[in-house]
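Contributing new complexes? Match this layout with adenosine-5'-triphosphate.
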Amino acid sequence: MPMLQTLNIHTTSSPTFPTSLSIVSKGNPVPNTILEVTQLTRQYQVGGRHLTVLHDASFTINEGESVAIIGPSGSGKSTLLGLCAGLDQPTSGNVRLVNQDIARMNEDERAVLRRDKLGFVFQAFQLLPTLTALENVMVPMEMRGKQNTHKLAERATELLNQVGLGERLDHYPVQLSGGEQQRVAIARAFMNDPALLFADEPTGNLDTATGKTIVSLLFDLNEHHGTTLVLVTHDDELASKATRIIRLQAGKIITETNASSSSY
Ligand SMILES: Nc1ncnc2c1ncn2[C@@H]1O[C@H](COP(=O)(O)OP(=O)(O)OP(=O)(O)O)[C@@H](O)[C@H]1O
Ligand SMILES: [Mg+2]
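Output block (do not edit by hand):
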């Protein structure tokens, strides 16, 4: 069975957020900003000295865009993604996410924003070890409370089918390969119909065929539902599908280009 023919993961719950596709189709020439990063710097104290791992990064991402962050190992990609997603605090600078200044929000408010609007695929998948694949995928929606568990399980099963794990629903993370865990993490990230999906090397542990499936899944979500994608990747094929590429080197943005005009 092909793992992904069509992306119909949103048929049961329609997203309530406006999509850039609908904005474009209505002829509105001004897209909405969904992420605004201003002079972002992250330093760590290591052995009594300051290490600047991200320096003065600024950019804006509009609703419905797909942006690839690329650069060598250690260049600050995961650091930048964590800051953009409000999972880490900058040393200086500012992040506005879905029109909210995340530095002004308390941890509870940030948690609600994450739960309702964001999806994450972490570089280290961060599955909950005591939950099965199916239960891990259901977690973000269960956190909303008052959910129909049967419907959630149906949707989680559908997502796991789409990433090719229909036969692994009851496996615990320790019983899954690295690539399988990554796919569970991807299914989980889609569960809440995120307005903005952050993914750190989403194809990093996958073989070529499975990687292609995941790339289609991500970009179908982007094209058909207007989900904004911010992806860290070393995968050229994935980066080439993004509308924009931000290239980091030694903690600095060295180029920001439209994917079509870039030769990375
Ligand atoms: N908690 C920390 N304390 C000190 N230095 C850190 C910490 N976390 C990350 N770093 C350093 O920050 C730099 C950037 O790390 P980051 O994880 O953002 O890199 P990356 O571009 O995602 O690399 P990779 O492609 O290997 O995942 C690295 O040099 C790393 O050693
Ligand atoms: Mg990284």
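Reviewers usually confirm one structural detail per submission. For this one: The first helix runs from residue 20 to 25.
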